[in-house]
Specification:
Largest interface: A-B, 26 and 19 residues
Number of strands of chain B: 0
Order of helices and strands of chain A: EEEHEEHEHHHEHEEE
Radius of gyration of chain B: 21 Å
Distance between the termini of chain A: 39 Å
Distance between the termini of chain B: 44 Å
Number of helices of chain A: 6
Strand content of chain A: 15-25%
Shape of chain B: elongated
Structural class of chain A: alpha/beta
Number of strands of chain A: 10
Oligomer: heterodimer
Structural class of chain B: mainly alpha
Shape of chain A: globular
Strand content of chain B: under 5%
Helix content of chain A: 25-40%
Chain lengths: 222, 259
């Protein structure tokens, strides 16, 4: 299977007076990418587009060689297992506990483990971050940082080949920043890739390519 | 003026076409649902529990009262004409063919239809639907199909319980005012009740259950970005559900009448 993400002739409206225009962008395998943007510029939409969460209004995006709008169900699910998107605000399904949220991803993508093995796997995964006691709570009972951290953990549970993160360090204190960095380090060490979208000016040693988001942002004044 | 009317007609027609294609997609996704029972079965069980089990007490109270009222009100009147046996025809026609399925459906609209529409609307605003899709799970097969199956099963079962409670409870309530020997009551009722009445009642409940769940889910998923759209869509879901139930009820009754 082709491992690249190819974006061609994409136009997508961000607001009433701005839109994304990407004539051609190819993200090849083997790179960990940082997408740098200004605040409130539509970075989340850009990241959702390149990870196949939302379809473009026009143009084509081929993720791992497939256009998700036209492929069959089994290929769609296979690609969704390979690419995982982490929401900026740590979105969780509100009527499920954190553990049930985690299990939802595992139940859908992992068939070889029994129910108790999946629960143990989640507990083992979460243990180093000292937040196991929160697993039976509902998302609304958690702080923003806790919810966001669980969002990142949930995305890493199925060990996706490509992890797309929207502002993974925003509003985090040093303790949580260290926790997230350790998750991302582990992810990269396992041979997987990252795309990090951020408005922060910090740099990451595991990133080896920079995409400047404003190159694709169009506004009437430009 | 004409443009406003024209625009509204076009919008209504487009909405109807969208709803039909949503319904067709949901029926196709039943196949996918059967392959995803590891993630969807919990949603189905919770829906049956909420729509069926938790509404049972309310259905039983309404059915018992209704059955009792019909017997108490019509019994003496029919007796004065020497037409006691007509009471059983009225019970079967009124309760089994119409009221059991229609009132059960209205109760389900009030409890589950509004709940489905509100829940899905809030999930849409909070990006939870998008999240489910991003994991690779089809929101239709994970959220809509179990709700449709759950509401439909609950609607049929509650309708059966409504019938039983209206007849037995009705007889019990009426026995305080106008006692009828149970053997006479049950014999006459079973003599009057035909297979066609039962089939008609089940078909109506089945169709109502499907319609309530599809309309409510569709309206919930039509919420776009603002939380203020949720109550607006919920109101639309209730209005469309009630109108559709009445129109469908008349249509099915006419079909059985012609047949």
């Amino acid at each position: 299977m082709n491992q690249s993400i190819e974006i061609r002739n994409v136009k997508h409206r961000l607001s009433t007076d701005s839109w994304l225009e990407i004539p051609e962008l190819i993200i090849n395998p083997g790179h960990n990418i940082l997408v740098r943007a200004e605040a409130e510029s539509g970075l989340s939409t850009f990241l959702k587009l390149i990870s196949g969460v939302i379809p473009p209004e026009s143009g084509a995006i081929r993720i791992f060689g497939e256009d998700l709008n036209y492929c069959n169900e089994s290929i769609y699910q296979l690609i969704k297992k390979k690419i995982s998107y982490v929401y900026q605000h740590g979105v969780m399904i509100s009527n499920l506990t954190i553990q049930e949220n985690m299990l939802l991803t595992l139940n859908f993508h992992v068939n070889e483990l029994s129910s108790s093995e999946k629960t143990n796997y989640i507990n083992d995964f979460v243990k180093p971050f000292e937040i196991s006691h929160l697993l039976l709570k509902r998302p609304v009972e958690l702080t923003f940082m806790q919810r966001k951290l669980f969002g990142i953990i949930r995305s890493c549970l199925i060990n996706p080949e490509l992890l797309v993160l929207d502002e993974p360090f925003q509003n985090f204190d040093s303790e949580y920043t260290a926790k997230v960095e350790s998750i991302l380090e582990k992810h990269v060490t396992q041979g997987n890739r990252l795309i990090i979208g951020t408005t922060l000016k910090q740099s990451f040693h595991f990133v080896d390519r920079l995409i400047v988001f404003t190159d694709y942002l169009k506004q009437p004044t430009q | 003026m004409f443009q406003i009317i024209g625009d509204r007609i076009i919008a209504a027609f487009t909405g109807f076409i969208e709803f039909i294609s949503f319904s067709i997609e949901t029926f196709f996704k039943i196949i996918l649902f059967s392959k995803q029972t590891n993630v969807s079965s919990l949603v189905l069980l919770r829906q049956i529990l909420f729509t069926g089990y938790e509404a049972l007490a309310l259905v039983l109270v309404i059915a018992t009262s209704l059955g009792g009222l019909i017997i108490i009100q019509l019994g003496p009147l029919l007796q004065s004409f020497g037409q006691n046996h007509v009471l059983y025809s009225i019970l079967v026609m009124g309760i089994t063919r119409e009221l059991a399925c229609v009132l059960t459906a209205f109760l389900i609209v009030a409890r589950s239809g509004t709940a489905i529409s509100t829940e899905l609307g809030n999930m849409k605003v909070n990006q939870e639907i998008e999240l489910i899709d991003s994991i690779g799970i089809s929101p239709i097969s994970y959220l809509v199909v179990p709700r449709m199956v759950g509401v439909t099963v609950a609607c049929v079962v509650l309708s059966i319980y409504f019938n039983l409670a209206a007849f037995l409870g009705g007889w019990w309530v009426a026995s305080f005012v106008r006692p009828i020997p149970f053997s006479e009551f049950s014999n006459m009722l079973l003599k009057t009740l035909s297979i066609q009445d039962i089939i008609q009642s089940i078909i109506k409940s089945l169709v109502f259950g499907i319609l309530i769940s599809l309309i409510s889910a569709y309206q919930g998923l039509k919420v776009d970005k603002a939380i203020t759209e949720v109550p607006q869509r919920t109101i639309k879901a209730v209005v469309y559900c009630i109108s559709t139930i009445i129109i469908t009820d008349i249509s099915i009754t006419l079909v059985f009448f012609i047949l």
